[in-house]
Design a protein that fits this description.
Oligomer: single chain
CATH superfamily of the largest domain: P-loop containing nucleotide triphosphate hydrolases
Structural class: alpha/beta
CATH class of the largest domain: Alpha Beta
Number of domains: 2
Order of helices and strands: EHEHEHEHHHHHHEHHHHEH
CATH architecture of the largest domain: 3-Layer(aba) Sandwich
Shape: globular
C-alpha cells in the first residue's frame, strides 16, 4: 500500500508555496497533478514551479511532453503510480499537487472496465424517433425495464441521459448503473490524505487570480505563447492550445482580439475555471478543506495555512 498526500485547490490559491513547505517538513517528493504543467516550454502560463523551487524539492511529471501531444487521465495514472511506487520505495512520501481534479479522481479509482464512448449515429437515430411526449415516455420505459436504477435517476424528458444509458446497454449488455458502481470503488494500492485549499469569500480568490494574470503578463506570457505558436507547437486541435492563458494570447497573435480584450477574457476564463475547481474538490469524498481566509473573509498569513496543512497530514498519518 502506498500512503500518499495531496494538496489541491483552485488556480492561484497558493498550492505551490504550501506544497514546498509541506514537502520539506514531512520528507515528500512532489508529483505534478496538473494537466498543463506536463508540457515542455509552457512555464509562465501554467504557473509551473520555478527551477529554484524544483531544486529545493524533487518534482515528478513536469516538462515531459511536447505541446503537440494529447494526454489522457488513464495515461497520467499509469505514470503517476509508477512515480509514487519509486518515491515510496526510496523511503519518501509522494505528494500530489495541482488543480486537475480528474487526475486525482482517476488516481484513487481502480483500473476498471470503462463505459464505451458515445456513438453519434446511435444517438441521432434515437433522437429522430422522439417525435412526441409519448415516444419519450416509451423510450424511458424501455430503460426502466433494463436498468431501473438509472431510470429512477432521470426524468423521461432528459432524453440525452436516457439515450446514453440505453446506448451503454446496447453496446455492452451491461447497465449504466453497473459502470457507475465501478467508479465508486477505491484503488487498493493507493491511500491518499487529501487537503484542498478553499475560500470563504470567493472575491479573495478572484483578486489573487487577477493579480496572477497581471504578473504572468509582466513575466512574458505573450512572448512564451508567441514562441510556441511560431514553432508550430500550438496546433488548433491540441489540448495545449486550449489551455487558459494560451488560447487568449493566440487570439492576439491571430489579430482576433486586442491585448486589452484578451486580458479581460483571460481573467474571466480563469475565474470561471476556479469556480469549477472549487465545486469539484468540495464534492470529492475525503477532501479536507483548509481555508485561506477566515470566517469573516480576512486572508490568513501563509505560515498559518502551511502549519494547518502540516498538522492535518501529521495527525492522519501517525
Amino acid at each position: 500500500m502506498i500512503h500518499a498526500l495531496a494538496i489541491t485547490g483552485p488556480t492561484a490559491s497558493g498550492k505551490t508555496a504550501i506544497s514546498l513547505g509541506v514537502a520539506i517538513a514531512l520528507g515528500c517528493e512532489i508529483i505534478c497533478l496538473d494537466s498543463m504543467q506536463i508540457y515542455k516550454r509552457m512555464d509562465i502560463g501554467t504557473a509551473k514551479a520555478t527551477k529554484e523551487e524544483q531544486s529545493r524539492v524533487p518534482h515528478h511529471m513536469l516538462d515531459f511532453l511536447s505541446p503537440t501531444e494529447n494526454f489522457s487521465a488513464q495515461a497520467y495514472k499509469e505514470m503517476a503510480m509508477e512515480a509514487a511506487r519509486d518515491i515510496t520505495y526510496r523511503g519518501k512520501i509522494p505528494l500530489f499537487v495541482g488543480g486537475t481534479g480528474l487526475y486525482l479522481s482517476t488516481l484513487i479509482r481502480p483500473d476498471v472496465e470503462q463505459a464505451p464512448e458515445s456513438d453519434p449515429e446511435y444517438r441521432r437515430k434515437l433522437e429522430e424517433s422522439l417525435t412526441s411526449e409519448e415516444k419519450r415516455i416509451e423510450l424511458w420505459e424501455r430503460l426502466r425495464q433494463i436498468d431501473p436504477v438509472s431510470a429512477d435517476a432521470v426524468h423521461y424528458n432528459n432524453t440525452r441521459r436516457v439515450i446514453r444509458a440505453l446506448e451503454i446497454f446496447d453496446a455492452t449488455g451491461k447497465t449504466k448503473s453497473y459502470f457507475d458502481a465501478l467508479t465508486k470503488k477505491k484503488n487498493e494500492e493507493l491511500e491518499v490524505t487529501h487537503v484542498t485549499l478553499d475560500f470563504h469569500n470567493r472575491e479573495n480568490l478572484y483578486a489573487r487570480i487577477n493579480k496572477r494574470v497581471d504578473a504572468m503578463l509582466e513575466e512574458g506570457l505573450f512572448n512564451e505563447v508567441k514562441a510556441l505558436y511560431e514553432d508550430g507547437l500550438l496546433g488548433e486541435f491540441t489540448t495545449a492550445s486550449q489551455a487558459i492563458g494560451y488560447k487568449e494570447m493566440i487570439l492576439v497573435l491571430r489579430s482576433l482580439a486586442t491585448m486589452e480584450d484578451a486580458v479581460e477574457i483571460l481573467k474571466q476564463a480563469t475565474r470561471n475555471y476556479a469556480k469549477r475547481q472549487l465545486t469539484w474538490f468540495r464534492n470529492m469524498d475525503g477532501a479536507i478543506p483548509v481555508y485561506a481566509d477566515d470566517d469573516d473573509g480576512n486572508m490568513k498569513p501563509a505560515e498559518n495555512i502551511l502549519a494547518e496543512c502540516i498538522s492535518i497530514f501529521r495527525k492522519v498519518n501517525k
